[in-house]
Structures are given as structure tokens and as C-alpha cells.
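Sample log: Phosphoribosylglycinamide formyltransferase.
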Amino acid sequence: MSGVRIAVLISGGGTNLQALIDAVETRDIKGKIALVISNKRDAYGLVRAEKHGIETMVLEKETYGFRERRDAALLEILQEKKIDLIVLAGYLAILPSIIINAFPNRVMNIHPSLIPSFCGNGYYGEKVHEEALKRGIKVTGATVHFVNEVTDGGPIILQETVEVDFEDDVKSLQEKVLEAEHKILPLAVKLFAEEKLEVVGNRVKIEEVKK
């Protein structure tokens, strides 16, 4: 694979997107972020992309109308841009089946917990950390996984642990987990670009991990 072509889907500030941009620009990831797509026009991640000369697209119902039309437009642009890998980096929308089926084991998501804890329908953003603190866990973390049609149910690629201190609140815990996300998401993409990931059933075999 002579340079993987990546599309990053976002909904917010894009700090994970920035981590990917940095890894691409330092050539740690052998590839190119060919497109950044947001379902929210005011997402700051779009500004980050534009600052680095990356093409952006806003996919919202005000522009495209019915969901089926938006889904078809998304698939068309991904195929037109010859995308090899889709990365969901804080994308707060359900990815349609037509995309998942068209890109099997080529869609990654970053989740702010150690799956299978605090994941699945309704677990996103601050709610993940609120529930973790409410349960009183001592260790949490972040997970990168491939996406299938089960929410947070796809094969796990990488996980990074984070200690939960007694003094932590939602904000401080979120910040610590974000640091873990910024570490493992670029690494997962790097491994994909170097063809070092193999999906066997619902498990991922990783060759020669070099951090």
C-alpha cells in the first residue's frame, strides 16, 4: 500500500484529528488525510483541517435532506476520493450500514473507555466518564476498534489504560483519557497503513508493534 488515503469523520473540536494530522505530517503515518467530514457546520475540527490544507465537507440534513440521501452522498464522496480507511474521531452520529458494508474492517472508531465497559448505545462524550466515576472504578482508558453494525462491538485494535484518582471529576478524567486517545489512535492508523493488522473473527492480530 503506497500511502493510505484516510477520511476522518468528526462532530466537534477535532483534537484526535489534530493528533492524526501531526502523525501524518511527521511521516509517522504513511499516508494522507484526503478528507475531513463533519455532520456539524460549526465543528472546530473543520478549521483545523483547513489550516493544514485538507479538503472538508459538511454533511447535514439542512443541505442533503433525508438520511438516505445523506448516506448515499457520503458513500459517493468516499468512493470518489478513493478512501482506504475511515476514522471516526468524535463523530456523534450512527454510521450507516451501506458505509460499513462497503468498507469492511476499514472503519476505525476511538471510544473513551476500556470496551466492553461503559460502551454501546447512549455511551458517548461526558456520559462515559460520569458513569465511570459513579461506579467508582480505579482504572479506565481508551479503545480503538474496527466498526461493525453493533455499537462499539467491532474487533478491538488497541487499548490504553488510565488510572482514576479519587480527586478526579468528569473534566479531569476526560482530559486524561483524551491523552490516551491521542496516543493510540495514530498508532492504530499507523499499523493499518503498514498492513500490520489482521482481523481473525472478532480479534485483531498485530505484527511488530513499535511505539
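Observation: Residues 74 and 182 are 26 Å apart (CA to CA).
Observation: The mean pLDDT is 93.
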